[in-house]
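Researcher: I'm preparing a figure for a lab meeting and need a structural model of a single chain. I don't have an experimental structure, so a prediction will have to do for now. The sequence is pasted below. Please return the structure as C-alpha cells so I can convert it later.
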Amino acid sequence: MTVVGVTLRLQPGGDSLPKLALNKTYFDALRAAGADVLPIPALDGVPVERYYGMLDGLLIPGGPDVEPRRYGMATRSDAGVHVDRLLDELEFGLLDLALANGMPVLTICRGIQVLNVACGGTLWQDIHVEGATTKPHDVPPRDAMVHGLDVEPDSLLARTMGATHVKVNSLHHQAIRDLGRGLRPVACSDDGLIEGVEMPDRRFVVGIQCHPEELARRERWAARLFEGLVAAASQG
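Model: Understood. Here is the structure written out cell by cell.
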C-alpha cells in the first residue's frame, strides 16, 4: 500500500486540553484514492527524517499562517496573522526533503503557501488589507462554491483534475505574492490571484489554494487530485 504523510497541528480541545488534529476529510480523500495515511505530529524534537523515510508521498494541508520572517517580512499588526512555529518547522523540514529527493507532493491552502515560501517566494499577509483583491476569499461553509478557477490547459494540474475551469471553495486570507523559484503558476482565481502552482521538472509537485478535500466526495476533479498524488507516489 502507498503511504502518504499528512501533518497534525496543535489545536485547543473543548476540555481545555491541547489536541493534535487535522480535519478527517483529508484522511477520507486520501484513503478513497487508495493510500495508507501516516499522521505526523508537530511536536518539539519530532524525528522528521525518520517519518520521511516511511513515506511514498506527502500532503501539506491547510492550517495557520506561515511565519512572515520565513519570507523576509515583519508581521503586520493589521493582518490577523496567526502562526505555529512547530508546524512551520515540521512542514518545511518534510517539504525540503521531499523536494530534494523527488517525492510526489500535494499542497493545499496553507500548503501551497508553504511550498511557495520554501522555494523563496513571498505571501500577501492579508489579501484585503494589502490590496491584492477586493473580492471575498474566506467564505464558509467549507464546501460552499465561492469563485471560479481557471487552469492552464497544458499543465499537470489540468491533466490531473481533468478540467480547465472549475468552481471552488475558498477559506483563506493569505495568498502567493511573489512566486517562488522553479514554480509555474498554472491556475488563477477570477480576480487574478495565483491559486495553483506546479514544478514542471518534477513528477508530481502540485499546489492548490482551495480545499478539494471538502469536495472530493461530490466533485470528480477534486477527487482526482488525491488520486494523482497517490498514483505518482505508488510509482516508487
